[in-house]
């Protein structure tokens, strides 16, 4: 059994609840435990993962959040930079699944957050579990 940390940016609570439900269900199906911590926004997720990874208390990580386009360029920054920083951590060998939704509107996010539809939270958890498997395989 491995211990996963779900790092969520709680910008849209109802969507995060669905994403986390999907992620937890996938992790439990894999026989793993999980904890959840909350950060202010998607831009803070990579830093929180880096800090938690340094603690040595977690085997893998699932990033959960929702970024919905507004009126300004900020969407590109939040969506792009959170993904870029998470990818950088992955390249450092930290098992992470990215479940941060980046959508044009809430309707798109709802379909992707819902575990009975596109279940992107569960998908991110599956990715994190697979990356941990690979880390162990290559160790
Ligand atoms: N607009 C969204 C944000 N913005 C906040 C940033 O992520 C960050 O917390 C802030 O710039 C302070 O550093 N975050 C989301 O997760 N989702 C959004 O739609
Ligand atoms: C993704 C965002 O940052 C967005 O929620 C912010 O909206 P706006 O660009 O209208 O300030």
How would you concisely characterize the structure shown here?
The chain is of the alpha/beta class. Helices cover 53% and strands 22% of the residues. It has a 4-stranded parallel β-sheet, sandwiched between helices.
Largest sheet: 4 strands, parallel
Write the CATH fold name.
Rossmann fold
How many domains? The number is 1
Order of helices and strands: EHEHEHEHH
Strand order of the largest sheet: 2-1-3-4
As a whole number of angstroms, the C-alpha radius of gyration is 14 Å
Span between N and C termini? 17 Å
List the helices and strands and how they pair.
Blueprint lengths: L2 E7 L3 H17 L3 E7 L5 H11 L4 E9 L5 H18 L4 E8 L2 H8 L6 H19 L1
Parallel strand pairs: 1-2, 1-3, 3-4
Characterise the protein shown here.
Strands 2-1-3-4 form a four-stranded parallel β-sheet, sandwiched between helices. It has 139 residues and is of the alpha/beta class. The protein contains five helices and four strands; from the N terminus they run βαβαβαβαα. The model has no long low-confidence stretch (mean pLDDT 98). α1 runs parallel beside α4 (106-113), α1 (13-29) crosses α5 (120-138) and α2 (45-55) packs parallel to α3. β3, α3 and β4 (96-103) form a beta-alpha-beta unit. The longest helix has 19 residues, at 120-138. The two termini are 17 Å apart. The protein has one domain (3-138): Rossmann fold, CATH 3.40.50.960. The ligand Nc1c(NC[C@H](O)[C@H](O)[C@H](O)CO)[nH]c(=O)[nH]c1=O is lined by residues 9, 11, 40-44, 65-68, 78. It catalyses: (2S)-2-hydroxy-3-oxobutyl phosphate + 5-amino-6-(D-ribitylamino)uracil = 6,7-dimethyl-8-(1-D-ribityl)lumazine + phosphate + 2 H2O + H(+). Pathway: Cofactor biosynthesis; riboflavin biosynthesis; riboflavin from 2-hydroxy-3-oxobutyl phosphate and 5-amino-6-(D-ribitylamino)uracil: step 1/2. (2S)-2-hydroxy-3-oxobutyl phosphate binds at residues 71-72, 112. InterPro entries: LS, LS/RS, LS/RS_sf. One of its GO terms (biological process) is riboflavin biosynthetic process.
């Amino acid at each position: 059994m491995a211990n996963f940390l779900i790092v969520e940016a709680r910008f849209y609570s109802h969507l995060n609840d669905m994403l986390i439900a999907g992620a937890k269900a996938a992790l439990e199906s894999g026989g793993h435990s999980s904890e959840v911590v909350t950060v202010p926004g998607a831009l803070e997720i990579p830093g929180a993962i880096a800090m938690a990874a340094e603690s040595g208390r977690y085997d893998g990580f699932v990033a959960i959040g929702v970024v919905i386009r507004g009126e300004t360029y900020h969407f590109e920054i939040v969506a792009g930079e959170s993904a870029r920083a998470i990818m950088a951590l992955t390249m450092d060998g930290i098992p992470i699944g990215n479940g941060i939704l980046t959508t044009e509107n809430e309707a798109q996010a709802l379909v992707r957050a819902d575990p009975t539809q596109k279940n992107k939270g569960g998908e991110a958890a599956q990715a994190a579990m697979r990356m941990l498997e690979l880390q162990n395989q290559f160790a």
